[in-house]
Request: fold
Amino acid sequence: MLRQYWILAKPGIVAGNLMTAIAGYLFASHLSFDVTNFILSMLGFAFVIASSSVVNNLYDRDVDKAMERTRTRPTASGAISMKSGSVYALVLAVLGFGLLAVFANLTTVILGALGFVIYAAVYTPLKRKTYHATFIGGFAGAMPLMGGYTAFTGRIDVVTLVLGMMMLMWQLPHFYALALMHKKDYAKAKIPTVSIVLGKRMTIYFMLFYTLMFVLFNSLLYRYIYFPRIYIVSSTCLCVLWAWFSAQGLRLKPVNNWAQSSFLMSLVILVFMSVFIGIY
Reply:
C-alpha cells in the first residue's frame, strides 16, 4: 500500500521539479548557504509538488481509466480511495507549506501556492476543455526554479523572471512532444491536446517556436546575469540542435519514435541547464 501512495505523488515529476528548485537555490547562494535551511526548504518544495500531483490524480481518475499509460494509477485502479487520497494531499500540502514558511520565506510560500493553484485548480480541469491549458500549466512548472532562487534571496527580481520564462519556454516543446507520443491515448480520453486539435505539423511548429524562445531567454542570462560565455555557447548549441531535430519531424509520417527522442533531448537540456546554473 505504501508503494501506491508513493506512485500517487508522481515521484518522477517531483524529482524533475525539485532538481530545478535545487539549481535555483544553489545559483542564488553561490554555494554558500545553511545546509539545514537548504535541505528543509527543498523538502518543503518536494511535499508541495507531491501534493499538487496527488490532487491532479484525484481529479483525473476518470480520464486515467481511459488511457493505456495511466489506467494502473492508484486512483484510477481504485487502490486508493478519494477520501484517503484527499487526506494524503492535505497532509503533504500542510507539511510542504509549513516547511517553506519556516525555513524559506513568504515570497517563496506565495510562489509555491501560485504554482499549486495553477497546476491543481486551473490547468487540471482546463485541459479537458482546451489545448491552451498546456501553456497555462507551464507557469506552474516555472515556479520551482523561481522558488528555489527566492528561497535564498527572499525577493523577486529580473533574475527570477528570466529563470521563470526560461522554464516556461522549455516546458512547452517538452509537453508537446508528449502530446504527439500519446495522441491516441489523449483522443480516447477526449483530452483536446494541440496534437489533436491542430495536428502534427502545427504542433511541431509550436515546438520550434518555443525552443527558439528558450534560446532567447537563455541568452539573457549572459546579458543580465553575466553568465560565462562557455555556458551560453554550449547551451545555445544544444538548443539549436534541439530545434533542428524538432524540424525533422515535419518530414516524418509516423512520429512516435521521433517525438520520444525529442522528449528525451529536452530532458538532457534540462539536466544540463540545472547543473550549470547550480554550480555557477
